[in-house]
Amino acid sequence: xxxRLIQAAIVLLGxxxxxxxxxxxxxxxxxxxxxxxxxRVRPWLWIGPALALLAFFLVYPTLNxxxxxxxxxxxxxxxxxxxxxxxxxxxxxxxAMRNNLLWLVFFTGVTVALGLLIAVLTDRVPYxxxxxxxIFLPMAISSVAAGVIWKxxxxxxxxGQPQTGTLNAIVGSVGxxxxxxxxxxxxxxxxxxxxxxxxxxxxxxxxxxxxxKGISDEVLEAARVDGANEWNxxxxxxxxxxxxxxxxxxxxxxxxxxxxxxxxxVMTNGNYNTDVVARRMYTELFNTRNYGRASAIAVVLLVxxxxxxxxxxxxxxxxxxIR
Length: 323
What we know:
By secondary structure, the protein is mainly α. It contains 15 helices and no strands. It is globular, with a radius of gyration of 26 Å.
C-alpha cells in the first residue's frame, strides 16, 4: 500500500512540478535570445513535449507498421510486396473490403440522413430535449455493449422452440417464422449496419441540430413571406446552409465505417460473410500471428482513411479563410 501511495504522490505532485520546471526553463532560455527570435522560438518550445509524445505514440508506430508490412510472418526476412498482394487479392480480404464498402455507403448514408431528419423534426418542438436525449442515449454505451445487446435481440432458435431473441419473439407472436438474422446472407450485413446506425444517429443528430439552430430565423421568415413551404425551406435553405456541417458529420461517420470492428467481432466474429478489414487485421495479428500480413492490412486501412482526412482538412482551411 505504501508503494502505491508513493507512486500516487509522484504522479500528483511530480508531473505538475516537472511541467512548471519545463516552462520556467523554456522561458529562461527564450529570454536570452534576441528579441526578434523570441516570438518564433517560444511556440515551438512550448509545444515541444506534445510533439515528442505525438511522434512517439503515433508517428513511430506508423512507420514501424509500414516497415513490418514488408517482412515475413515473424519479421525476420524481407518479402517485398507479398503481404500487400495477400491483403488485396485473397478471397477473405476481398470479402472484408466488400463488406467495408457496404458499411461505408449504407452506414454513412443512413446515419447522416436519419440524423438530419431527426434534427429537423425535433427542432423547436415542446418535447425536443426529451426526444433528443432518448435518441442520443445509445452513444452512452460502448460498441461492445451495443453488440452484446443486439446479439440477444437477434438471437435465433429453430421454429417450434422458445425464442429468446426479442425480434424473433415479436415476429413469432404474429405467426411469422423466426428468422436467423445474423446468419442469413447477405442481409446479415444489413442487420449489423443497423446496430451502427442505432448508435451513431444520435451523434449526427446533435451536430446537425446545432448547425440547424445557427440558421437565422430572419432568413426562414423571409423565404416564407416569398411563398416557400417547409419542403422548399428544407431543400433550398436548410440543406445548403448545413452543407459544411453535413460534410463534417459524414467524414466522421466514414472514418468510423472504415474502422468498424467491435460490432462485427462481438456479434458474428466475421462469420457468415460479415468480416471487415479491421477484424481481418486482428485475425492475422492475434490468431495466425502473421505480423507482416496484419501490418499490410493496417497500412491499406490507413491509406484508405488518409484521402478523407485530407478533404476534411482542406474544407476546414477553406472555412477558416472565409471567416
